[in-house]
């Protein structure tokens, strides 16, 4: 364990005497930078803070960073991660100067990597904690207040498996479930194994118990998380464990959608493809990182597969699931990449027909083998290739989206709205293949929704009514519509609206109520003080109105 207390002379760390006199709970907000694993870690951080007596700041206060505790959960994969962190910290310095008692905590991968260097560069930070000791956050905050000194505590190995911690879920209808943490691969560009450690697998019974707990509280969609999900089971001696886990999820009553991320092509086996195709609630969607199409570059990256193996996996996936949507990660400008190497990436991307891709310019990360390789490429070369690759993927994505026009899809309505949904009166959700869909509701339903805010739900929201119109969907409900138009990275379904642009006006529109929609209503009524939240607490998953209780110490107040 690396632990230290720092108090630079110019550090405005708040002490107990600065705390508010009122007995009102201190407020918190968590800002997440990085991957899905970080998003799920942030849910644990929020759960621990609520268990310790904090309450989440209101949406307007979060937007202005007006909270008593601001936690930044960092990423270290890309070079701009540090820039983003210190940019955020710079903004918070002036806010903190005007808010006596405010505390700032930094966690996650960059905290694990930079350690006390964060407080040295930003002495107004109160707490720094790593990826292996998330559970320490409430104690470190309290210690920093009591000691009037910044607390930096970085564990060298996993102290508590994150999934055993309290969790404040962001969604009542969908949730993340970690099946493993860490990674045993040695990709030369990646710092994650150094920061997250070797792979540690949870036992299947523990995973399934957490999935069941989520379902019991209203969730109908679960995403299984791991740095390399399809190597799951190696630690306890069962190389077929991941396929078995997928099939076991298919036996959970009420679980409608199962997803997972991310598999490694080198470990991707046909039993997983069979499990996906034969388990009805495993969705026809796959995110599998390619990184590069050149075999020479793949070798330099220590990615233990080649382009033809990758394409072969995609062929078998599509043979088993013809409508599967496949997405990927790509890196441009790896050291030594030639124009011929880049042409191979373009060839494989064209052949792969990805529905979308997360495309990155190679980032030189200290501590990774690739950082010291010769032939680091000039920025302008990398930028030009990046733009060519993005243009290709934009075209492929547009073509693949256009193939969806005319299809009937069932959309899980989400809470978040598209940027134009307020003006167009559309709702937003995800199809089974995870494509983003903006859907119209019938004209008379639009009238019901008149005045609805895209922000906080108000007490008079028609979606909370006891006599709910059967055509009005709630977040968590399913809507069947026909796709009428497409764009590269989303679909439009205006089939409910007569005379709509595109195919539109077919009348295809139906709402299916779900337990998730019921859970959303219960949560919102509880939040508004107009209902009782009778969702029980379960180990590893929150009740609709709060986190799981695991007996963490309560926040001491002056």
Largest sheet: 7 strands, mixed
Enumerate the spans where pLDDT stays under 50 for 5 or more consecutive residues. 1-17, 533-558
Sheet/helix structural class: alpha/beta
Rounded mean pLDDT is 87
Number of strands: 22
Give the strand content: 15-25%
Gross morphology is globular
Rg over CA atoms, rounded to whole Å, is: 24 Å
- Helix count, DSSP H or I runs of 4 or more residues: 17
Cα end-to-end separation: 30 Å
Write the layout of secondary structure elements.
Blueprint: E1 2-6, E2 27-32, H1 36-51, E3 55-56, H2 59-63, E4 69-74, H3 80-97, E5 103-108, H4 109-114, H5 117-121, E6 127-129, H6 137-147, E7 150-154, E8 174-178, E9 180-181, H7 192-196, E10 200-201, H8 204-216, E11 221-225, H9 241-249, E12 257-261, H10 270-278, E13 285-287, H11 295-300, H12 307-320, E14 325-332, H13 339-352, E15 356-361, H14 379-402, E16 408-413, H15 421-424, E17 426-430, E18 436-440, H16 443-448, E19 478-482, E20 485-487, E21 490-493, E22 509-512, H17 515-527
Parallel strand pairs: 2-3, 2-4, 4-5, 5-6, 6-7, 8-11, 11-12, 13-14, 14-15, 18-21
Antiparallel strand pairs: 1-7, 9-10, 16-17, 16-19, 17-18, 19-22, 20-21
What does this structure look like?
This protein is an alpha/beta fold and 558 residues long. Helix content is 32%, strand content 18%. The chain is built from 17 helices and 22 strands. α9 links the parallel β11 and β12. The chain is globular and about 60 Å long.
């Amino acid at each position: 364990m690396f632990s230290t207390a720092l108090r630079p002379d110019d550090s405005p760390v708040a002490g107990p005497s600065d705390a508010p006199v009122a007995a009102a709970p201190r407020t918190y907000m968590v800002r997440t930078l990085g991957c899905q694993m970080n998003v799920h870690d942030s849910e644990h951080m929020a759960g621990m803070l609520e268990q310790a007596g904090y309450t989440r700041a209101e949406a307007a206060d979060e937007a202005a960073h007006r909270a008593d505790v601001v936690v930044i959960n960092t990423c270290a994969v890309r070079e701009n991660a540090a820039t983003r962190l210190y940019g955020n910290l710079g903004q918070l310095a002036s806010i903190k100067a005007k808010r006596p008692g405010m505390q700032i905590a930094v966690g996650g991968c960059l905290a694990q990597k930079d350690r006390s260097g964060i407080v040295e560069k930003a002495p107004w930070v109160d707490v720094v904690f790593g990826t292996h000791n998330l559970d320490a956050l409430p104690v470190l905050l309290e210690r920093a207040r009591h000691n009037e000194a910044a607390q930096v505590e970085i564990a060298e190995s996993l102290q508590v498996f994150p999934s055993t911690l309290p969790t404040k879920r962001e969604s009542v209808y969908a949730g993340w479930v970690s099946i493993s943490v860490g990674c045993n691969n040695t990709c030369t560009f990646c710092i994650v194994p150094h920061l997250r450690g070797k792979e540690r697998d949870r036992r299947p019974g523990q995973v399934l118990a957490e999935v069941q707990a989520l379902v019991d509280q209203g969730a109908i969609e679960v995403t299984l998380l791991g740095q390399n999900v399809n190597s799951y089971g190696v630690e306890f001696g069962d190389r077929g464990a991941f396929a078995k886990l997928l099939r076991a999820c298919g036996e959970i009553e009420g679980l409608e959608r199962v997803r997972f991320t991310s598999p490694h092509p080198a470990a991707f086996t046909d039993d997983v493809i069979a499990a996906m195709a034969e388990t009805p609630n495993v969705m026809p969607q796959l995110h599998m990182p390619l990184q590069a199409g050149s075999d020479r570059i793949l070798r330099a990256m220590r990615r233990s597969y080649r382009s033809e193996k990758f394409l072969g996996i995609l062929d078998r996936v599509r043979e088993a699931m013809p409508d599967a949507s496949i997405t990927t990660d790509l890196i441009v400008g790896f050291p030594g990449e030639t124009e011929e190497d880049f042409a191979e990436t373009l060839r494989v991307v064209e052949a792969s027909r990805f529905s979308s891709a997360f495309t990155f310019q190679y980032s030189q990360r200290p501590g990774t083998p690739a950082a010291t390789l010769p032939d680091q490429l000039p920025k302008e070369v990398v930028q030009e290739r990046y733009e060519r690759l993005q243009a290709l993927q934009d075209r492929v994505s547009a073509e693949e989206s256009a193939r969806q026009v005319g299809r009937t899809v069932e959309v899980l309505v989400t809470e978040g709205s598209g940027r134009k949904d307020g003006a167009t009166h559309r709702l937003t959700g995800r199809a089974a293949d995870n494509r983003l869909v903006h859907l119209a509701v019938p004209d008379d339903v639009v009238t019901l929704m008149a005045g609805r805010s895209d922000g906080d739900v108000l007490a008079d929201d028609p979606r909370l009514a006891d006599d709910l119109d059967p055509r009005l969907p709630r977040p968590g409900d399913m809507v069947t519509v026909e796709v009428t138009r497409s764009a590269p990275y989303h679909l439009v379904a205006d089939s409910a609206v007569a005379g709509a642009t595109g195919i539109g006006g077919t009348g295809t529109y139906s709402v299916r109520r779900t337990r998730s929609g019921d859970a959303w209503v219960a949560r919102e009524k509880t939040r508004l003080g107009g209902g009782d939240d009778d969702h029980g607490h379960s180990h590893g998953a929150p009740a609709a109105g709060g986190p799981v209780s695991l007996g963490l110490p309560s926040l001491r107040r002056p």
